Amino acid sequence: MSQDAIPHLGGYTEAALDQAFAELSREVESSAQLLSSPDAVEQFRLLWLGRKQGRLKLISDAWLKSAPAEAKKPLGQRFNQLKALIEERLERASETSAQFALDAEAIDVTLPGTRRALGAEHPLIKTMHEMVAVFKRMGYSVGVGPEVETDYYNFESLNFPPGHPARDTQDTLVIANQERRPLRDRLLMRTHTSPVQIRTMEQQPPPVRIVIPGKVHRNDEADATHSPIFHQIEGLCVDTNITFSDLKGTLDHAMKEFFGSSVKTRFFPSFFPFTEPSADVQISCPFCGGKGCRKCKHSGWIELLGCGMVDPAVFGFVQQRQPAYDPKKISGFAFGMGVDRIAMMKYGISDIGLLYSGDARFLEQFA
Amino acid sequence: MKILSSWLRSCLPQLSADDRQLADDLTLRGIAVEGIFDLGENGSLFEMDITTNRVDAMNHYGIAREAAIIYGIALKPLETALPGPKTTVKPFPVSIEEPSLCGRFTARVLRNVRITQSTGIVAERFRLLEQKLISNAVDATNYVTLAMGHPTHAFDLDKLEGGIILRRARKGEKLRTLDGIERTLDPDDLVVADEKKALAIAGVMGGWDSMITPETKNILVEAAWFDPWTVRRSSRRHLLHTDASHRFERGADFNAPPIASALVSSIILESGGEVEGDLVDVIIPEAEARTARRPAISFALSEAHRILGATEDPQGITAEIAEAILTGLGCRLKKNGTPYNAPAQNLDPSRAVSVETTASRAEYEVALPSWRLDLEREIDLIEEIARVYGYNRFKNTLPSFTGAVVELPYAEKEAVVRRTLLGLGWTEAISSTFCSATDAVTFAPQPNSTVPMDNPLSEEAGMLRPSLAPGMLSMLALNLNRDVEDVMLFEMGTVFSGSTDKVDEKPALSIGATGRLPLDGPHQASRPVDFYDVKGTVEQLLSRFVSKLLYFDRFPSDSGLMPSWLHPGRSARVVIDGATIGYFGELHPEEAQPRKLKQTVYVGEFYLDRLYKQDLRQPTMRELSRFQAVRRDFSFIFADSVSYAQIAEALAALNIAELQRVEPKEILRDKEGKRIPQGHFSLLLRTVFQAQDRTLQEEELQGWSQSVMGALQKLGGKLRE
Ligand SMILES: [Zn+2]
Question: What is the CATH number of the domain that holds A207?
Fold first, then answer.
């Protein structure tokens, strides 16, 4: 049956009307099934409710025309019910079709987003800042000093004996034309950040708590673990009654702050010209919890720091400018660590040279 | 250094700890066992790393001594008994002509010896140590070094012409050393000589001509003590680092020579021969006074407590423990004035013994062992006590603290610079501290202020960098060479100037950019980075600092006012309150070309010391106007000679408080000169007016528009139709 055809009405009895309108309702329902676009909804509206050619009008015109007078009222009521049904379906359809319209505007959310590049802080600088922050929370001020130092500050005042191998040009990068100057005045690239300890003490009577981050240089052949340029963090604490157990506690606390509270420390005797007693410090491997992994060479421990009690001879040099550093009255400890090694371990960096290459592919990984 | 546990045990009959325990206990005392290799029934081989100050522990007996202290057990004395000489002869002549270079020289003559293969315990231990066997006489000297650490030398006595003389080498004197190399000696070398010729470089290496051969019949055994400095100087001059020089230059045991001599002799005599005469032993009293007979030093237990602090064991370091450690090390103690012999203590914490604590007021005079020249001061004894007691038996304590954390003056400014650049998408890099001589000249801000290195890492690193720019260019070039084409880097570091007498260090910032802006993707096409992108970063960076007057300008190439490495037309200087803060722009093509940069590169350098003189800007809120802002756009044509700075200045000079913003929205040029005449540009200028207290009236807006147009016309601007 064509939808345009006026359906046959089998008389005006209640039963005949019920049957005819049931048929029409079914027709409305079925044509309302597929209203998935605004166009279809409009089609549906025109089909049923069109002012001139709408089926509702055509059918009601046709059926009312031949209806006996007493049938006009029930017929009219039924047309009103049918109209209400159509309108209800129409309303429901336009609601869903509005949603369908937004669906039609769908985009591919799996395409990559537009990213604004973030700059990446250098992993060394980042590591250095994090470590310095740990000591700042423990009451340490930050100190800095020149990268070009004199032999006096880099070696002599740190109790390096005159013929110590570190003083040789094989180990130390030296500024040109120094031979004619007195040894103590000769200029070189500082080989550690320790000279800043001396400079700080010369300028400030005890107590001193200072943490010294900085760039240092050695005359080293570059390979995967050596670079002639590298970075250190040095610490110094001087006061009355500073003890070796304070040194232990301070470093144990700092390592727990930096690597996590489950990290343990252990101390081994070592030798540095400017501290006595001197120690090497190992931490339990923070990467495997001490079980053994590649980063700790399967030993469960990683050697990280050198430290010790400030040698009285160092105080002796400082006393030439600051008499308050009397080794009989005060004591102190100093410690130092390589930032490059810590950063390399933390970030899994395989070659120290990458840190100084400026290779954007490497650096941008740390954004 | 390789050490046999079985050899250690032969010196320690009471030792009950197993090899692994022994290795751990030694390591915790700084006598580091780096590796343990199982030798089956022969015990273990320890691979050891002994710090340079502990030359006394670079041998089996020295390490056994450490173990004896740790466990409080006896150390078996070395057997030095020799069969007495059968005949009395005149002592072998030994003359020390340089008493400051040679402190002690012993000579022993062995007659009728038999040069053969080593056998017995020497051969067995050498095999386990993978040490090459040479002959019984040479092996004997090496064996004794391994046993007790004192180097000795055996001469073929029949090659000697007359007695031994310790003298300086003559200038140009020749000596063929045991390695077969003929060496030219220097008066700074001490030689062991006979009356005719040099026989050996003292403490470094023996001579070829007097060495032991299979034909040797008679031997002179040398065991001596040489001045460490002299040995080091010779070892360095001749690039001869030998086991002997390694030990002598670190300070050998002054009392060891007779013992070492006896040990060597007894091993050689096992294969035949006899001692002739008594040991000749020449001692220089001054050298002995500096070493074996050093004056005793004072040690107070309270000082150990002051330096070392709290221990886990509540008793801490008692007088008994301190005494046992010092005595075990070979010190002789006088306690509170009277000689005192301390009983040994077992210091192994797992088997700690209970000791009565005596007064910690104990004060000692401590005579130092001849084999520990590294012990000189009270602090050295305190270190020894801490070391042997065990570092890890000290408590972890935190010192109390009074005082404030003092920030560096520039710390916050440095952080702001870094943070701003990172936020704007620049990645931080670190380049070399050095540059080539050519770059140093090109990039130095002042002429004749570059600093050369004495021992540069390479030819390209011959100078301290006067600027961060060459390093930045190297990094950009590296990226371009690896086909990384879009790069934005910055570096904050030190630049150097001055002379080789005085080097000035200043903090600087460099930025470098090339390629496209990092916004490329399917959603929007990116564009190449340009001068104004870099300038925008500079503006944003500088806006973090207070400035009364900030401007950018440019000078022609012949002015000498711009760095020669920048494109003179496409670079700018930035000035804050009269001080030049830096330069940036396109790299000069002449600098780009030798670096083989395949695309345009922008680079800038800024003097952070000058920037840091400006305060950081502290934002203060301005009240927001409730009244509407009104926009007025003006389209004008100007000659190219008019700069935007002039236009902005002219509008600022109008002093219209309600003129809130002036923005150039569009700049057009027409090459053909049709819509805009050649040598001119059209500018679409947006102005925004707003008042805090009222809605703006049309009449006042009209008036301001007239003023703006008037000002633009004064600059030669023509209203565009
Ligand atoms: Zn691990």
Answer: 3.30.930.10
